[in-house]
Amino acid sequence: MAGPLRIGVAGLGTVGVGALRLLTEHADLLAKRCGRRLEVVAVSARDRSRERGVDIGAVAWHDDALGLAADPGVDVVVELIGGSQGIALELCKAAIANGKHLVTANKAMLAHHGTALAMAAEEAGVALGYEAAVAGGIPIVKALREGLAGNAISRVYGILNGTCNHILGAMRESGLDFAGALEEAQRLGYAEADPSLDIDGVDSAHKLAILASLAFGRPVDFEAVHIEGIRHIGALDIEYALELGYHIKLLGIAGLTERGLEQRVHPCMVSVDVPIAHVDGVFNAVVVEGDYIERTMFGGRGAGAGPTASAVIGDLADIARGQILPVFGIPVRELEAIPAAAMARHVGAYYIRLMVVDRPGVITDVTAALRDEQVSVEALIQRGRNPGDVVPVVLTTHETEEAAMLRALAQIARLKTVLEPPRMIRIELL
Amino acid sequence: MAGPLRIGVAGLGTVGVGALRLLTEHADLLAKRCGRRLEVVAVSARDRSRERGVDIGAVAWHDDALGLAADPGVDVVVELIGGSQGIALELCKAAIANGKHLVTANKAMLAHHGTALAMAAEEAGVALGYEAAVAGGIPIVKALREGLAGNAISRVYGILNGTCNHILGAMRESGLDFAGALEEAQRLGYAEADPSLDIDGVDSAHKLAILASLAFGRPVDFEAVHIEGIRHIGALDIEYALELGYHIKLLGIAGLTERGLEQRVHPCMVSVDVPIAHVDGVFNAVVVEGDYIERTMFGGRGAGAGPTASAVIGDLADIARGQILPVFGIPVRELEAIPAAAMARHVGAYYIRLMVVDRPGVITDVTAALRDEQVSVEALIQRGRNPGDVVPVVLTTHETEEAAMLRALAQIARLKTVLEPPRMIRIELL
User: Fold this and answer.
1) Is the ipTM of this complex over 0.90?
2) Could you tell me if A176 and A236 lie in one domain?
């Protein structure tokens, strides 16, 4: 049996402790599977004395995470500190510079510095594993880079943020409004005290940018991702979605179109007839569309100590077995930029909800605005009557260009009988 | 760039031609992804002159597939002939004996000879790739062997046969009976002229036995798989399933229980609330339950030229990149047999449908038989009245041991008022 793979772990939060626990609990199983032992030899965290429920007495302690990168006893650095820059980024650069393999769960860092880090890793001949950065419990990075290597990928999309998926599910199941569902998610520990990275779609966008690089062989381009979160989804929208045969999901979608590469994160109406509509709670799912597989879906827990630890150890197992591949599936020098498709030129169907004064002629004004932009109405629901009072009117459209839709909405918003800003949710044909 | 990987393909049916087409169409993409070219240098099939839509003029032709195993210009043999023994098995043995890597889509052969072939391959230091043997479009072998290597697996289950899934779906959607749905599937090319391998569950069992070896680190034990097909599923059962909130799916399930390892293939009632219930048509899905991931699901096309070719090329890419791992994730000599759990000791909930004479006292007799075996009734549906005539009665039970259930059913079958053999379908809590 080969010598052990010597691991240094930076960051001992939930995930770090989960990884240490896994490596201890399954030490023998992993040795069998990898042909050598996976040994934690050093750790770094803020507070040495904190009780973590795992024994770190026997391993080297570094007050400064950068010490791990300099430690000659460490073969691979596992970065679980987080943050798109600062110490996490410094550590990763230093580890690579010192010829150490790197495993990270840091999607924000990769979304912003992924290409540069990959370049450094490939020049140094070390691995850069990041299975844990996207949909932890789902080995989607490996699937895209290896299992599906025979396919030209046309689209990859999915539920990339468990917090949002939980909130939208709770709204659907308990009729809560957004604020109530967010509060509940915070109470249950599914949402952070400052939830904006999640609910505003940024976390999903980080992951999408990484997936897009892998799927399409292009440098990571986070700036090109169109991002909308779920704050504006109302309980009424969830209700209407159900009536129309949809669930609302926050999806990240990267796809090749005639207009270039689309990368977008926003709430979507998804038919209840497709499996991803039923991926509920904090679960994630990723769908890959390729020319030979047609469509393959992967679902599982995206976050939390267990699934993330599983992903980290999957990467460590690859390194232990000597399986080191180009970070994004092809050498980083061969990645080719693909022109980004402007969101204004996106073509799709739309759900529109208006709050209008219940008065004759309102519908005519609304549909006239749509007609002026050649937006074709597919269905219109005006439920209940309440003359003179405010009632919701819901429309769905046939496929149209987003710019036309937005112009029509601006015109509609100016109508005196339309009392709130129109709500627009894209209907996604999956 | 390293020299090309030289490939010999045996069997030029749909899948073989699909693989050749992929290797041609994506030759440059694959070279980028693998760091070397994947070149088909030799083929073998029955009829050289047949028109296949791919150009094989430039490659060596072998009338005898065994010639590929002897061809010094071939690095890897791709076996796409099929059949659990005969020429396919001979070819695989010869290829390995001659130090060539092997890629196969042959689940029947692996179910019966997988352990022996793996032993030979590992002794010869060559790869044995079989991603195409299980759920083609889903890289589940790689996921189990690599991506999820950090987990102790407790259960793996799934929809492993697209033909059965299509038939059950067609019955649900169009109200067809089994014979009608089978005929339709045959007309659409989703079922073979002799469909028994599919509809009797044998094909699913082949795949399950392979998955169980990978998941649990044990030799392949096809004989231990309990197998039931879908012939006995009636249109009435599909209807009642919907009423009770279930879809009927043919699942293969391998799981560790207190009683040993269960490996079983049979129709299951699956709650409409779980994603796998919505995996329809010819799609496959596999769910892996492990201690760190909790649950991860993979869905995609299981068969057909494209997905199977994708899987074959995934294996070839691994070989081209030098990624050669133990066939079942740990060295075959370290696989350990796990005692098989007897099906009679299976514990689960059951759906029972009886065709009874509509007459006072029938229900009492039926429930008495259940009571005698301590089977607890969860629900009972006796829809419609038709005094003196034959009506269906449907029961669901709480968890019970299968042996008790079968004894109760035998007693029920003996009742004069029960006119057909009772139909039993297991309710699966997923």
Assistant:
1) yes
2) yes
